[in-house]
Hints:
This protein is α+β, with helices and mostly antiparallel strands and about 450 residues long.
Amino acid sequence: xxxxxxxxxxxxxxxxxxxxxxxxxxxxxxxxxxxxxxxxxxxxxxxxxxxxxxxxxxxxxxxxxxxxxxxxxxxxxxxxxxxxxxxxxxxxxxxxxxxxxxxxxxxxxxxxxxxxxxxxxxxxxxxxxxxxxxxxxxxxxxxxxxxxxxxxxxxxxxxxxxxxxxxxxxxxxxxxxxxxxxxxxxxxxxxxxxxxxxxxxxxxxxxxxxxxxxxxxxxxxxxxxxxxxxxxxxxxxxxxxxxxxxxxxxxxxxxxxxxxxxxxxxxxxxxxxxxxxxxxxxxxxxxxxxxxxxxxxxxxxxxxxxxxxxxxxxxxxxxxxxxxxxxxxxxxxxxxxxxxxxxxxxxxxxxxxxxxxxxxxxxxxxxxxxxxxxxxxxxxxxxxxxxxxxxxxxxxxxxxxxxxxxxxxxxxxxxxxxxxxxxxxxxxxxxxxxxxxxxxxxxxxx
Length: 446
Ligand SMILES: Nc1ncnc2c1ncn2[C@@H]1O[C@H](COP(=O)(O)OP(=O)(O)OP(=O)(O)O)[C@@H](O)[C@H]1O
Ligand SMILES: [Mg+2]
């Protein structure tokens, strides 16, 4: 017996006392870090002396901070404090560096999770992203069209997204890249004006047998010339599903207990994103600062429209919605809901503003609708709803200060818009050589 080791205990007890496992003790024995006081020749059973405990505990402490074995040996065997301290400080430096890298990774994984939630998976491949170079997008991020002022074209009107210039019976509309959601302006999205214009013009063409529209010519991807109409002072919202997070949305109101929305009785027990028995019309006021739901009877009682005009408009809207639903379905999309603006030229109803664009409509992918609905999951949306939800998740529902969009979110949103344009028009999107700001300035300046 090695008397210098003091009273002997078996390896199991020693493991308990030292905080090292039997396995680790065997390992330390093999590498010579901590040699047992006694090893039974026959059975190999190891005993340790209680005086070895301080060394064992020092080894345990160094193991707990992840010290490499060669350093452990150097530290526990060092005779001077300076050497020990230098090794410990060096290890601290390595740990700090690793922590910094880990923090970077935590940030990166947060961004992945966020994009997974908001924009669809950045990890998913083969979904067909628009053929736009990073360089071209970067140029457009700085060259978006935010505001125009071409007074020589006529009286200027600024809408949420479009700047109009009215000259007699012709209106020049510049579709800017402004993004409005929750009834608020949130910034600009690259190529958004062009995409909106493309989609609206595609639908004007695809619905011209149902109702005449205002379109005269398209002198630039962001600009149209249209016939000036007398607007019907209602926005005609048609909905086939119960969804949404804004204050006028169906789901928001239904969840808050409303069972009659703009004159449409709603049954109990509906779930978010459920398809309605039939599409419904929930008009909102047009000429007020914030949208307000109001039914047919209120609209007539408030003197906004005659019963006859309302019914003719409603008929046009349901037929437009049926066409939209049908064509979207051919492209694997669901037209969830949309907003129409109608105007009058004499007694004729004319479709104006925009139609079935991602600004005025929600689209979902049809193939995953049922499964996601069954699982109570968010639908895969090809419109700005993910952006609305990104805002809502940050507590923004239209009141107070809006969170600032990151470039990443702006690009992801642009990608959504472009994909939808390609999907609907069945044509590849083409980015013009010049940015929207450059082109429109060239075209419309005095
Ligand atoms: N052919 C047309 N005749 C008259 N007005 C039109 C015509 N086409 C569009 N407009 C109007 O031009 C404006 C376009 O701007 P924009 O679409 O940005 O506005 P908005 O989003 O409808 O919001 P708001 O007009 O309430 O500010 C709208 O007010 C729309 O009603
Ligand atoms: Mg509009």
